[in-house]
Every structure is written in structure tokens, then in C-alpha cells.
Amino acid sequence: MTIEVTTAAMAHGGKAVARHEGQVLFVTGAYPHEVVQAEVTEAKKRHSFARALAIFEPSPHRRAAPCPHFGPCGGCQWQSAEPGAQAEWKREIVADQLRFVGKLGNVEVRPTISPGPEFGYRNRMDFALVGGRPALHREESQELVELSVCLLLVAPLFQLFVDLPIRPLADRVTLRAGVATGETAVLFDDEHGVIHEEVAGHTFRVTDRAFFQANTAGAEELVRLVTEVLAPGPNDRLLDGYAGGGLFAATVGAGCREVVAVESDPVAVADLKANADLVPVRAKFESSRPRLPRSWDLVVVDPPRAGLGREGVETVVAGHPRTVALVACDPASFARDAALFTNAGYRLEYAQPVDMFPQTFHIEIVGAFSR
Questions:
Q1: Residue 159 contacts by C-beta under 8 Å, 6 or more apart in sequence?
Q2: Residue 134 half-sphere exposure toward CB, CA atoms < 13 A
Q3: Which residues, in sequence order, are CB contacts of 209 under 8 Å at separation 6+?
Q4: What is the pLDDT along the chain (371 residues), one digit of tens a residue?
Q5: Is 175 within 8 Å of 186 (Cβ atoms)?
Q6: Deepest of 184, 237, 260, 345, by most Cβ within 10 A of its Cβ?
Q7: Which residues 6+ apart lie within 8 Å of 44 measured at CB?
Q8: Is 150 one of the catalytic residues?
Q9: Is residue 229 located within the same domain as residue 250?
Q10: Which is the catalytic residue, given 73, 76, 150, 329?
Q11: DSSP secondary structure, 250-302, as one string
């Protein structure tokens, strides 16, 4: 079914919101305040999904996308929108999720910080391979789109992309670069490699495909923001949950009396030992309480997209910290966790969106909690 609708706002997940015959409609390929012709792709009882076929009245923030693959390639959703509009939509999405999912309506959501360039910012990219050439999935599809260019890559990765050798039997490739160190790695399938990156004056080892923030300027900003939230002192014990390779343990924790870092991934644990002067607790964070001290003063947690959940929040508050910095990559799980912290006696002082991934709907958030 093809319909004409006027969009009103941007929803979590990067789709514009409209109403049709009293039902909420989520429209892929549209931006807020546009009149579009849309094809309904999925109808449900309370809402439906649609794809924009034509833009009759475009948003004043719409622009020409510079990438020739924008549209078919699912890597970017908002490349045809001005950067300022993208940043504001991300702030609004965080506020909406706190209000509707977390039931927290009076929280300060600060203007989105954009820590680096809008293109050429990714220090890591994972591609599928089609005939030996890099490809990404079409949006909401398993179909692969072969790419001749990717504008999100930092300069060293862009050159690796251009010069990538053809490996017809390989299925995937990971490109990594240390922006500050100049080191690069090309990892086909299960190949191994190590690079180093420098953030906040500290050099980090990053092994194979272990998690490390894919935007180096963004990682610097996260360290600054978490330090600002926690204000660590020489008498403080810091608990670092989901510590990864030690981004926060080695930087924010440098001024603390003690850092307790919890990480379950064995490759990340090995990097953590190399990057920070501590003995990590190798465990899943939500079940690590028996192996932790009785108390801690400060907490930074950077969980995966699903968030902390009830067990994770209970682990954080068990040590009665005075301040918690929650670093989140999903606004909905952030809002759910914020509600759990509120129920546990903590107050969300503010939420700070960080645009780590321009041209996409993905949002990093730093939440400041105190009791």
C-alpha cells in the first residue's frame, strides 16, 4: 500500500515518525517535517513500518549525500542530513527514551557533542567480502552491497581499503588503525594481529578483533566526560565494569588509590593486563560480586548494547558508590538502566549524548548518577 504522510519526529532506530489513520508509522528514508510518499512494508496492530519512495516536501536539513553507495548500503542512514540536524535528533532521541521507556521526564539531556570530523573517523571497520571485495549489508536485509569506497574510514584505513588484496576464498575482513601511532592491521577471516592506539596520553595495545572504541577522537571525549562525572581522587577505589582493554582503568583510574577492573573476554583481559597496572577480575560483570571488594567509591560501566539490566545495576550499587558514570551505546537500554538506578536510590544528574558515529543513528551516551 502506498500512502502520503507528513513526518513529525525522529525515532530511536533512525526512522521518521508519522501518523496514518490514527496509527503510528515508522518511515525509513525520511527525516522529520517532510511530506513523503511511502510504501507500507509491515503492518502491525499498534504501529506499522514504511519506506519512503519519494520526498514531496523535503526537510530544510536535507542535503546531497557525498557517498555513491548511500541508499543501497546500510552502513549510513543519515548521510543526506546536515550534521547539526543529526546531532539534535540524537539529543531528542535520548530525551524521548528517558521519558517514555525510563519514565524519567525531568532529566537534563545536554546538547550532543561531536568530537571529530563527520567523515573519516572510523579506526576500525568490519566488511563482508563479495568476490574478494569489501561489502556491507543493505539496510534491513541480508543482501550484500559491494563497495568501491567508504567515506567513514580514517585516512590509513581508506588507503588499506583501496589497496586491499583480493582473497577470493575469504568471507570477511577487519581493517584497524591506530590514528595516533600510524599502525594498521588487515585481518582476513580468523587471522591475528596487534596494533597500538594512543588516547589521553596513554598507549593501548589492541589485539585481533577485541573491542576498542572505533572513533579515536570520540574515545578521548569519553575519557574526558567520565573523568568530569567521577572527579576521581587519590583516596578513591574505582570499579570499572566491562573494562575491555582498559580505556577507563588506565586513564580515569590513574589518579585513584585502586582500580578494580572486570572483563570476561580473554583477549580483552590480556590487553587489559598489558595496558593497565592491575590484575583484572575475569568474570561476567553481572555475576562478579563474590570476587569484588565489599565497597567502592566510584564506578564506570560501559556495557554492551543490551545494557546492564537488573543484575548489572545491583552489582554496581552493592558497593555503595557515591558516583556512577554509565557509558551506553543504546538509548533504550540506557533509559531502562537509568530507571533501575533511580529505583536503587540514585539520581540521574544529566545525560550527555556523544556523536561517535556521524551519518548513522547510533548514539553514545554518558550518564552521571549520584546518591
A1: none
A2: 25
A3: 126, 174, 187, 267
A4: 899 999 999 999 999 999 998 899 999 999 999 999 999 999 998 899 999 999 999 999 999 999 999 999 999 999 999 999 999 999 999 999 999 999 998 999 999 999 999 999 999 999 999 989 999 999 888 999 999 999 999 999 999 999 999 998 999 999 999 999 999 999 999 999 999 999 999 999 999 999 999 999 999 999 999 999 999 999 999 999 999 999 999 999 999 999 999 999 999 999 999 999 899 999 999 999 999 999 999 999 999 999 999 999 999 999 999 999 999 999 999 999 999 999 999 999 999 999 999 999 999 999 999 99
A5: yes
A6: 260
A7: none
A8: no
A9: yes
A10: 329
A11: TTGGGGSSEEEEEE--HHHHHHHHHHSSS--EES-GGG-GGGS-S--SEEEE-
Please report the sign of the dihedral spanned by the C-alpha atoms of residue 226, residue 229, residue 231, residue 235: negative
Whole-angstrom Cα distance, residue 111 to residue 89?
A: 10
Give the dihedral of Cα atoms 202, 206, 211, 213; nearest 10 deg. Answer: 40
Q: Are 357 and 332 in contact (CB under 8 A)?
A: no
Is residue 209 domain-resident? no
- DSSP at 21: T
The residue out of 170, 200, 230 marking a domain boundary is 200
Total-model pTM: 0.95
Q: Per the structure, how many domains does the chain have?
A: 3
Per-residue cell: 159: 588507503
Q: What are phi and psi of 10, to 5 degrees?
A: -110, 135
**Together in a domain, 107 and 245:** yes
Asked if 269 and 296 sit in the same domain, the reply is yes
